[in-house]
Structures are given as structure tokens and as C-alpha cells.
Write a structure and sequence with these properties.
It is a single chain. The protein is an alpha+beta fold. Helices cover about 35% and strands about 25% of the residues. It is built from 1 helix and 6 strands, in the order αββββββ. The strands form 2 sheets. Strands 2-4-5-6 form a 4-stranded antiparallel beta sheet, covered by helices on one side. A two-stranded antiparallel ribbon has the order 1-3. A hairpin with a 3-residue loop joins β4 and β5. The longest helix is centred in the N-terminal third of the chain and has 52 residues. The termini are far apart.
């Protein structure tokens, strides 16, 4: 016949206590919150890069259109793209009010910034004689 001892071994635990379950749930909630915040930041950066790329593509498209149609193209900076409200285009050089593209592939020199809410500014530079369009990140 088995004997039963009173004391520490008298009550065996089969499972987790309520406190242990609450601690695990709090840790899971914290991890999910951090993951969602990280994904939100990544999505915001991807959106900004998409608009930065679309700005560059719009400039290249206008240059190519001028060369293909053999006609100069004039575009006001404000009419280059329809940006979301949190983005804006700021002119850096006085000649950036209106952008001029010529059939020989050249353009009037201009500089303007795409101001983005998270990544700051990206400066676009249009080179007069080479027709080169490049950008740099402005701190």
C-alpha cells in the first residue's frame, strides 16, 4: 500500500499558474506591438522611395518625350507630379520654377528638393549640357 507524505510534495502542480500565463501574454503583446511598429516604419520608407523614384522617372520621361517628339517641353515645377499632402517640391535654384527640356537632350539647369516626412530631402539636379538627371540626399 502506498504511503502519502504531507508537506511540500503533497500538492503536485499540473500546469501553469495564472501569473505565469499573464506574464507570457504580456510578452507576446509587447512583441506584436514592436513588430507592427517596425512594419509601419518600413512601409513608410518604401512609400517615400516610391515617390522619389516616380519623381526621377517623370523627369526622365519628359526629357525622352522632348527628344522623341523633337519639340521643347516646358513644365512648371508644381505640375511635375501630384504628390500626397505630406510631400512637397521645393525649388533650390531660381530656374527651378519652370523646367525646360530640349529636343537635343539638353535642359535648363535646375535644382529642387523632394521633401519627405520620414527620410528628409532628396535633391534633384538637372544638368544643362549633358542632360543628366541625378539626385542626392540632403541632410
Amino acid at each position: 500500500m502506498p504511503t502519502f507524505k504531507a508537506g511540500n510534495n503533497a500538492r503536485r502542480s499540473h500546469g501553469f499558474t495564472l501569473l505565469e500565463l499573464l506574464v507570457v501574454l504580456v510578452l507576446i503583446a509587447l512583441a506584436v506591438t514592436l513588430a507592427v511598429a517596425s512594419v509601419d516604419r518600413i512601409a513608410g520608407r518604401m512609400n517615400e522611395r516610391r515617390w522619389a523614384d516616380q519623381t526621377l522617372q517623370a523627369l526622365m520621361k519628359l526629357r525622352n518625350k522632348s527628344m522623341m517628339e523633337r519639340q521643347p517641353i516646358t513644365v512648371p515645377l508644381a505640375g511635375l507630379l501630384t504628390l500626397p499632402p505630406e510631400f512637397r517640391l521645393d525649388k533650390v535654384s531660381e530656374s527651378a520654377d519652370t523646367l525646360y527640356f530640349y529636343p537635343d537632350g539638353t535642359m535648363d539647369e535646375a535644382q529642387f528638393d523632394l521633401v519627405m516626412p520620414r527620410e528628409g530631402r532628396r535633391r534633384y539636379r538637372l544638368k544643362r549640357f549633358t542632360g543628366q538627371i541625378d539626385w542626392v540626399v540632403v541632410p
